[in-house]
Write a structure and sequence with these properties.
Strand order of the largest sheet: 1-2-3-4
Oligomer: single chain
Strand content: 5-15%
Distance between the termini: 75 Å
Structural class: alpha+beta
Number of strands: 10
Radius of gyration: 60 Å
Helix content: 55-70%
Shape: rod-shaped
Largest sheet: 4 strands, antiparallel
Length: 837
């Protein structure tokens, strides 16, 4: 038993006073009058764990508190009724630790439990819930969850808004693809196709995380930072300063990028590279800078190869002249002869003037021919030099024009690339007989671009996508499908099955019209559709199971099972056992719920049958021993109450043996049940049944005695009376007033019965001896003539019992009635004739 009734009344009144207007706590008595059990409702932030294993915050919590026997020496028992996730909370109990003392009150305990839910106090070692203890240690910075003034309840407020939530951010590389069909229109200048690889921006959260923004600033990711600024609708001075700095840095690099483009288009690839590389030192997330730098480096590599060949040609101009201009063999021979003569002359001193070297002492005779020779040589050299310079200039123009072609080609400006390469090819054709190696290599490079599939397809208006060339409309349709896949996969990853399924089905309908789509993608999407359909039934089933809506959960699980057989082997193997286990669990719980309903409606036989079906279903399910034991005890209770019900009906109809048998069976069931609230209560219930059994047996035996007395079977009646007395004396109820009275009544009845038996014995004596007794008092009577004795008691005094004796005397054809009175002396036990005198 719990505390006394007066104490329970005081506790209830105190709780009503303490929490009548509390903003966070309300109480409701659930058992007893006065109540000894309460449900406490907390409206404050606490940590819960969902059926999916997710740890979330929740604001509604319920705890059951029961006042035990020996309160307050023993603490109340506390049990969570909601899914609280706390180191000291178990599904069946709450650990109070050292909190409770004899001077503690129930109000103190309720406030203490609120502090536990708020995370103000929790155990980290030897906890009830080790998983929760680890989680609380890892997230200790979160606690307490709210700032609550427990002393002044009316001012206690939850501080949900104090929590900081991180902003999910996406880097540019997460939002890019190789192609954007939105920029496929031709440019107005050269009608070339330009490619933009960026996708539309994604809005960020309106909650400003300055730590994240400063991290972006330190990493020089100003484009990402500016993107957040544009999406934020709650400006502040620090945010404005960051956004202004991002804009300034972006304007700088955009100017550098524009300058680099100009130098690249002019053919000054080295300067363009320097501009591009300077951008990376200012902004790290410039969208196209990596591809720009790689393209210019490739151009420089190609131009460097061509320049090296030209340099090797320029290193030997005299040899080339001799080879390319064999003009005057005679003059050449003359020069050779002169050279030979000069070789035979004495070697001039190095200090000798140049005039002396070319004009010997006998120069009067050779003056005119030498001048003529020198003039001719000058003319020849001048003409050759002019031609060499002119062709070299044209080759340089060809190289520059080819650089423009390469840049346009790299930027997918196909018309401009075609014009530049045709012009470069024309220039190379004009100088092919000079600088042959360089010209030939440049010509091959030009022809490689002009004959490339990329240029041919680009000029035809086609683009390369997924290693296939296709029209812009086809590419646009294909990219639209890919975007739809991306959106669907995002929803699929986020487990938003319904919208993902709708997008997938739309995609399949459109994909059948597109021949460029990889068939393996369609197969994957079809598998995802099946998986989404499966999860659309399976996930709600888990929620319904969590909410204990068993019939609805069974319906969803059966739908999921139909789709499961069509899933690929990997997914089917992953979920087959889970679905089967969930089905068995639902079937068990549903049968248990039906059994509980029948139990509540006192339909004991139906409850027993349903509980047995639940046990049979539970054999294949990994149920906890407690669940199995609960069902078994419920079956025993149903059998108990069914037996009591049978006993009550038999008792009401007077079928005592049947009632006693039913009650005796109920006693056995009651003693076998192990989950009664307390042993004391169980003993009380057994005593009640034993009392009813004793009462029923006494009533039954008294009815039997009544019948025996009617039949004058006094000995048998006395034996049954004696048995009743023995049964009462042997029972634990012999000292109760009800059975004391019954004992006295039976003893009185036995005394009366004994007197009746003694009287009957005396009458029997007189009947047996009436003839001698009459002849002793009537000497003329003949014993043989006496018959038909009639004996009756006439009166009784303190000392005597008087009997009237009558018989019939038949003699000489006449019949006479003889009468006399005979008395029994109580004190002496002797008989004598009696007369009033």
């Amino acid at each position: 038993m719990s505390a006394s009734a007066n104490h329970l009344d005081e506790i209830y009144e105190q709780l009503r006073e303490d929490f009548a207007s509390h903003p966070l706590i309300s109480i409701r008595p659930t058992k007893g009058n006065p109540p000894d059990q309460y449900e406490i409702y907390y409206t404050l932030v606490g940590i819960c764990k969902t059926g999916k294993g997710q740890i979330v915050e929740s604001r509604d919590h319920t705890v059951e508190i029961s006042i035990p026997f020996g309160f307050p020496h023993f603490p109340p028992s506390c049990k969570p009724k909601s899914d609280l996730f706390h180191p000291d909370f178990d599904s069946a109990a709450i650990c109070l630790g050292d909190f409770w003392g004899q001077d503690s009150s129930l109000s103190d305990l309720i406030i203490h439990l609120g502090k536990m839910i708020n995370g103000e106090t929790y155990t980290t070692t030897n906890a009830f819930n080790e998983e929760a203890a680890e989680w609380y240690q890892e997230n200790s910075a979160k606690f307490p969850l709210s700032h609550i003034d427990w002393e002044i309840a009316t001012t206690a407020e939850s501080s949900d808004n104090d929590h900081k939530h991180k902003i999910d951010t996406l880097e540019d590389e997460d939002l890019t693809t190789q192609f954007d069909f939105l920029t496929l229109e031709k440019e107005t200048e050269d009608e070339d196709i330009s490619l933009n690889t960026s996708f539309p921006d994604i809005d960020s959260s309106t909650v400003v995380d300055f730590e994240l923004l400063h991290q972006l600033e330190s990493q020089k990711k100003y484009y990402t930072l500016l993107k957040f600024c544009k999406s934020n609708t709650f400006p502040s001075e620090p945010l404005t300063n960051l956004c202004n700095k991002a804009q300034q840095e972006i304007r700088k690099v955009e100017k550098l990028h524009s300058d680099g483009k100009k130098f690249e288009n002019k053919g000054d690839a080295q300067i363009a590279l320097e501009k591009y590389q300077q951008i990376t030192t200012i902004v790290s997330d410039f969208p196209t800078i990596d591809s720009d730098i790689q393209r210019v480096k490739q151009t420089l590599t190609l131009l460097g190869s061509i320049s090296s060949n030209k340099t090797s040609d320029a290193a030997q101009p005299e040899v080339s002249k001799k080879t390319e201009h064999p003009a005057d063999n005679k003059k050449s021979d003359t020069s050779q002869k002169e050279g030979k003569r000069a070789s035979r002359r004495p070697r001039a001193d190095s200090s000798q003037p140049a005039h002396d070297l070319f004009f010997p002492e006998k120069r009067t005779r050779t003056k005119l021919p030498l001048y003529l020779f020198l003039g001719i040589v000058v003319i020849i050299l001048g003409g050759g030099g002019y031609l060499w310079y002119s062709f070299t200039e044209k080759l340089g123009d060809a190289e520059k024009t080819f650089a423009e072609c390469s840049t346009a080609y790299a930027n997918d400006q196909f018309d401009a690339a075609k014009r530049s390469c045709d012009k470069a090819l024309q220039l190379v054709g004009e100088v092919k007989f000079i600088h042959q190696d360089s010209a030939h290599q440049l010509e091959n490079s030009i022809l490689e671009i002009l004959h490339s599939e990329k240029l041919t397809q680009g000029l035809a208006g086609n683009i390369l996508l997924n290693d296939k060339y296709m029209s812009k409309d086809e590419a646009k349709a294909l990219l639209a499908l890919k975007q739809k896949i991306k959106e669907a996969e995002k929803l699929f990853t986020e487990e938003k099955w319904q919208p993902a399924l709708q997008l997938y089905k739309t995609f399949i309908a459109e994909a059948e019209k597109n021949s460029h789509l990889n068939p393996s993608i369609i197969d994957t999407i079809k598998r995802n559709i099946l998986f989404a359909e499966f999860r659309m039934s399976y996930d709600p089933a888990l929620v319904l199971i969590q909410n204990k809506q068993w019939e609805a959960a069974l319906e969803k699980l059966l739908q999921a099972q139909k789709v499961l057989v069509s899933l690929p082997e990997a997914e089917r193997g992953q979920y087959s056992e889970k679905v089967q286990t969930a089905l068995q669990k639902c079937q068990f719980a549903n049968l248990k719920e039906q059994g509980d309903l029948s139990f509540t409606e006192s339909d004991w036989l139906s409850a027993i049958d349903t509980y047995n079906l639940a046990l049979a279903s539970g054999k294949e399910t990994s149920l906890s021993p407690d669940s199995i034991e609960t069902i078994r005890n419920n079956i025993k209770r149903a059998e108990l109450y069914n037996s009591i019900n049978k006993g009550n009906k038999a008792y009401a109809s007077g079928a005592w043996d049947e009632a006693i048998a039913a009650y005796s069976k109920a006693t056995g069931f009651l003693m076998d049940i192990q989950t009664t609230p307390s042993q004391t209560e169980s003993d009380i219930n057994v005593q009640k049944l034993n009392r009813i059994i004793l009462q029923a047996s006494i009533i039954r035996d008294r009815q039997t005695i009544r019948t025996l007395l009617e039949n004058e079977d006094f000995k048998k009646a006395r034996q049954i009376y004696q048995q009743i007395l023995k049964t009462i004396a042997a029972s634990p109820f012999s000292t109760e007033s009800e059975f004391i009275d019954t004992t006295e009544e039976i003893k009185a009845a036995m005394r009366a019965l004994d007197e009746q038996l003694a009287l009957m014995k005396k009458i029997e004596y007189l009947k047996i001896n009436y003839q001698p007794l009459f002849t002793a008092n009537y000497p003329a009577a003949v014993p043989e003539n006496l018959s038909n004795p009639v004996i009756s008691k006439t009166k009784e005094t303190d000392s005597k019992i008087v009997f009237r004796m009558q018989c019939t005397e038949t003699s000489g054809g006449r019949s006479l009635s003889l009468v006399m009175f005979y008395a029994f002396n109580k004190s002496t036990g002797k008989w004598s004739l009696y007369s009033d005198n």
